[in-house]
Amino acid sequence: MRISFYLLAAMGLFCSQCTQQYTATPKPVTPKIDYDQVSIQLMQNLAPEIIGTWTLQKVVVKHNPRRYFREHVKLTKDSTFLNLATLTIRPAAVARSTPRDIRRGEYDGTIEYGGKAYPVQLNLRADFGWLVNREGPQAISLFEYHFPNGTRIVEPEEAFLKDLGLINDNFSIEVINGQRKMVWRGFDRGVEQVDLVKQ
Predict the structure, then answer these.
(1) Residue 11 included in any domain
(2) Among 25, 161, 177, 195, which is most exposed with the fewest C-beta within 10 angstroms?
(3) Of 147, 104, 144, which is closest to residue 121 (Cα–Cα)?
(4) Is residue 131 part of a domain?
(5) How far is CA 31 from CA 35, 97, 132, 136, in A?
(6) Is residue 193 domain-resident?
(7) What is the pLDDT of residues 33-78, one digit of tens each?
(8) The pTM is what?
(9) Measured between alpha carbons, how far is residue 124 from residues 3, 11, 98, 118, 171 in Å?
(10) Is residue 20 part of a domain?
(11) DSSP state of 171
(12) Distance (Å) of CA 68 to CA 61, 75, 81, 170, 187
């Protein structure tokens, strides 16, 4: 009798453990990000910061002879160019898409180097890392010449900027709020970093 009492008590304790419900603490719900809306707001916030005249105060170029052919730039080592050029940025006069994509920042401008001025353009889009974390560079853009259609003779100054890797490369763009500074970091054509200061 005594054994069956202990056996029943043990079985009851075991079964009570089986029916006990465990409640897990729910994971916090991460709010869903409306990437389109955040991109639109970012481009609106960046516009007054980006528009203006900038000095390319420091351009850091990594030397890698296998990266691409530099006909007009004869580098033999990593190089830094100080106060290389002046860049003027303004909103694009003509939208580059129909209808205009307000998630992107479209800019025209001129780059002045060696006494010459050349038309350029930037097409900013929000950097995904910034959209998620609100840290680091806010945007990414291809920086390229924006000449009218037609045949033209390429000038040495224009070719130098392209061969250096400054023109026709993608850059991450970080605007440093309240300091009138901007930092560009190149992706693959040799220009590692450009520090710009607003005039």
Answers:
(1) no
(2) 25
(3) 144
(4) yes
(5) 12, 31, 11, 21
(6) yes
(7) 788 999 999 999 999 999 999 999 999 998 877 765 666 677 888 9
(8) 0.80
(9) 81, 69, 17, 19, 10
(10) no
(11) E
(12) 13, 12, 19, 15, 13
